[in-house]
């Protein structure tokens, strides 16, 4: 239970990437606030975690809206006292290339993949600093953010920018003991919630999954979350 006593907030906590990370952190002892713009999705993941005997609440809402972001963070703090871990995971892709891209969709992707992580990181960091707790922010990138992807201009642009956001935010927040890291899932199989059935005792990000991280080569699967959330914060040692 390497996250005993920790509180995590995960955005876009569907049963795929976000929900899996949420379930893994809960299994490691964290209390988890599960966000999604679709309330039923946030509640389903929170209910799944509770059904496994861990503590979780749903904090639904649109994270592109500043007032909603503040309300989500407040809900998590009101419920659990603080937030130690933020996972910026939510997303929605329109998959347009240069010739098809439309401004409203472009702006929507920028809002979800960039402005939302900025607002959430700011609000959560303020709580961490105020409560004098070290913390951890984990940004979910994509191979498109490292190398680009044809027909997916806004997404590629945002994920590449989020990578550098990670570096800049890490420099800003290091003095407060807040780590900012990113992980890059690739080749996802969509199964999940397999934390309790995975024989490696891990996330359940599924057998065939391959990961790379920004800073470190780690063994796939659980290794990335161990690196991104636990090891990078010296928790669980
Ligand atoms: N699945 C993959 O193969 C893969 C690969 C690389 C990276 N990723 C990244 O992982 C993350 C999650 O992907 P996924 O496959 O689990 O997707 P998903 O669609 O299952 O989950 C994303 C969730 O974000 C929610 N969401 C969208 N807009 C929102 C908003 N404004 N406010 C709050 N919630 C919002 C959606 O409702 C959805 O439930 C994304 O950042 C994606 O880029 C996924």
Q: N-to-C terminal Cα separation, in Å?
A: 11 Å
Helix content: 40-55%
Strand residues, percent: 5-15%
Mean pLDDT level: 84
From the 3D structure, determine the CATH topology.
Rossmann fold
* Tally of distinct domains: 1
Strand-and-helix sequence, N→C? Answer: EHEHEHEHEHHEEH
By CATH's scheme, which homologous superfamily applies? NAD(P)-binding Rossmann-like Domain
Please tell me about this protein's structure.
This protein is of the alpha/beta class and about 240 residues long. The chain has helices at about 15-25, 40-50, 65-80, 105-130, 145, 155-175, 220-230; strands at about 5-10, 30-35, 55-60, 85-90, 135-140, 180-185, 210-215. It contains seven helices and seven strands, in the order βαβαβαβαβααββα. Strands 3-2-1-4-5-6-7 form a seven-stranded mixed β-sheet, with helices on both faces. It is globular. It has one domain (about 5-235): NAD(P)-binding Rossmann-like Domain (Rossmann fold). The longest helix has 29 residues, at about 105-130. The structure holds nicotinamide-adenine-dinucleotide. Nicotinamide-adenine-dinucleotide (NAD) binds near residues 37, 63 and 92.
């Amino acid at each position: 239970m390497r996250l005993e006593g920790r509180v995590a907030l995960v955005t876009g906590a569907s049963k795929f990437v976000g929900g899996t990370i949420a379930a893994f952190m809960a299994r490691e002892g964290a209390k988890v606030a599960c966000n999604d713009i679709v309330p039923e999705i946030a509640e389903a993941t929170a209910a799944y975690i509770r059904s496994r005997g861990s503590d979780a609440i749903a904090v639904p809402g649109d994270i592109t809206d500043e007032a909603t972001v503040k309300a989500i963070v407040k809900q998590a703090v009101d419920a659990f006292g603080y937030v130690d871990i933020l996972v910026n995971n939510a997303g929605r892709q329109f998959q347009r290339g240069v010739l098809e891209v439309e401004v409203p969709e472009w702006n929507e992707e920028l809002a979800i993949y960039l402005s939302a992580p900025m607002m959430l990181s700011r609000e959560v960091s303020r709580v961490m600093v105020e409560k004098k707790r070290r913390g951890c922010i984990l940004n979910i990138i994509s191979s498109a953010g490292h190398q680009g992807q044809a027909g997916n201009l806004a997404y590629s642009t945002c994920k590449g920018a989020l990578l550098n956001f990670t570096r800049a935010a890490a420099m800003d927040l290091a003095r407060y003991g807040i780590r900012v890291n990113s992980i890059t899932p690739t080749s996802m199989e969509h199964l999940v919630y397999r934390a309790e059935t995975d024989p490696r005792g891990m996330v359940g990000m599924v057998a065939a999954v391959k990961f790379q991280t920004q800073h470190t080569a780690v063994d796939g699967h659980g290794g990335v979350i161990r690196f991104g959330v636990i090891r990078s914060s010296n928790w669980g040692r």
